Amino acid sequence: PRKVSLSDLLFSRKLPPPFHFQRQPTPISTDFKFFNGGCGGAADLTLLPSQVCLLCWDMEEPGQLKRAVIDATAGSISGAISRTVTSPLDVIKIRFQVQLEPTTTLALLSKNVYGTSKYTGMIQASKDIFREEGLSGFWRGNVPALLMVMPYTAIQFMVLHKVKTFASGSSKSEDHIHLSPYLSFMSGALAGCAATVGSYPFDLIRTILASQGEPKIYPNMRSAFVDIMKTRGFRGLYAGLSPTLVEIIPYAGLQFGTYDTFKRWAMHIQNLTIQ
């Protein structure tokens, strides 16, 4: 088998021939055989002699790009709204995560060991943030959060659609739902990884800004970005990327894999009910 790079699978308009994929006899399942290509993001595709069709991106329908743009735009807007609404809870969560002192009442009994805790509960933390930083304190880091969630959602939906189109041989969403569970998992995992890499610097800056109380170390997003570039360079913008990817692979894979599975079950039950 010939090797195709991962970038070719996701972004190339046409793959070099003769790459083929096997369609199962039933319309319920469209499957590929993948082999481990080792490091470097390479994947091997088996060339199957029967029931094959040419695999190239020219088979995309004219409305596919429009549909992908609509999905990406809708996802970005909904992601921005949900991020803004839940920002206060996110700020409180981050404050608890970066606090070294205990946050539970039971652990406070050992305050002679840990020291006095600034935040001990959600209500108490909310009061302190409001008193010290005002209402705007609950939306600290929201601008980089929006800059993160909008490209994240857009990249995720576009890559997911590309991968599912590649795997199913069709750009129609009704064909994507019939992918096997492990292909749905792989599609979601790849989309999640691509979106994470593309938006990670904004996520890092958002976490830094949301974690700082008073007095502020960084007054705005620009100062945080400049300081990171000066002290740690470009790689500093991706600090913690590896554990984030380890987390996002099962998260995004299970998210889209279970979604497709339950949707397929629901459609099957609905068809049985109609019959």
Automatic annotation (TrEMBL):
Gene3D superfamilies: Mitochondrial carrier domain. It is found in: Membrane. GO terms for cellular component: membrane. Its main location: membrane. It is a multi-pass membrane protein. One of its GO terms (biological process) is transmembrane transport. PROSITE patterns: SOLCAR. It comes from the Eukaryota. Solcar repeats lie at residues 66-166, 179-265. Signal peptide: none annotated. Belongs to the mitochondrial carrier (TC 2.A.29) family. PANTHER family: SOLUTE CARRIER FAMILY 25. This is Mitochondrial thiamine pyrophosphate carrier. It comes from Ambrosia artemisiifolia (Common ragweed).
